[in-house]
Task: inverse folding
């Protein structure tokens, strides 16, 4: 039995097979390309795993060790008595050395950065304590003068208390004494207004 001759527009089975294989191969190639690009793209980085040991020099390690020693010396002293000026200087030096270590490691040591923040707050709290105590004392003196209707002296005392609080705010902004209580400028204005309206001499 003879096969009928293939018409010009008809393809051979072998040719159809190659066309299908080519299409499948192209599809697989495209999918493989997308997979490869996804692997080459940006990835999430766990910065906790970033090693900083290689960037830490012996000098930086010495800064860190000295800072720890100074803080321990400060702790020992304040466990026996109230901190004095020379004691506060110890914690300031500990803060400065820790800062040098953190900056030297480009801030990659997260634990060291946290310790720096803690040392900063601790130093500023201690450094501002005497100023805050003096500011409160002067404010109480101003209130006593106002109650005795010595308004000029009370005004002077309020300004002194405000100046001390302003010094705290400017120099120790990380301390708990920063802008403590009712801001003195507002308290002073309220005092002056009350005196001018209610207690002005006839």
Result:
């Amino acid at each position: 039995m003879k096969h009928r001759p293939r018409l010009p527009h008809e393809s051979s089975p072998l040719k159809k097979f190659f066309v299908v294989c080519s299409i499948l191969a192209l599809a697989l190639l495209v999918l493989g390309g997308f997979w490869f690009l996804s692997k080459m793209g940006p990835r999430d980085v766990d910065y906790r795993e970033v090693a900083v040991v290689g960037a830490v020099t012996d000098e930086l390690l010495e800064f860190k060790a000295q800072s720890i020693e100074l803080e321990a010396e400060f702790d020992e002293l304040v466990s026996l008595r109230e901190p004095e000026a020379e004691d506060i200087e110890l914690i300031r030096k500990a803060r400065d050395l820790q800062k040098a270590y953190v900056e030297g490691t480009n801030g990659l040591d997260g634990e060291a950065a946290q310790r720096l923040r803690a040392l900063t707050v601790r130093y500023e709290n201690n450094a501002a304590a005497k100023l805050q105590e003096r500011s409160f004392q002067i404010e109480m003196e101003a209130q006593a003068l106002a109650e005795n209707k010595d308004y000029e002296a009370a005004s002077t005392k309020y300004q002194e208390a405000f100046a001390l609080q302003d010094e705290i705010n400017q120099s120790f902004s990380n301390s708990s004494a920063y802008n403590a209580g009712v801001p003195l400028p507002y308290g002073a204005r309220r005092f002056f207004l009350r005196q001018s309206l209610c207690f002005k001499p006839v």
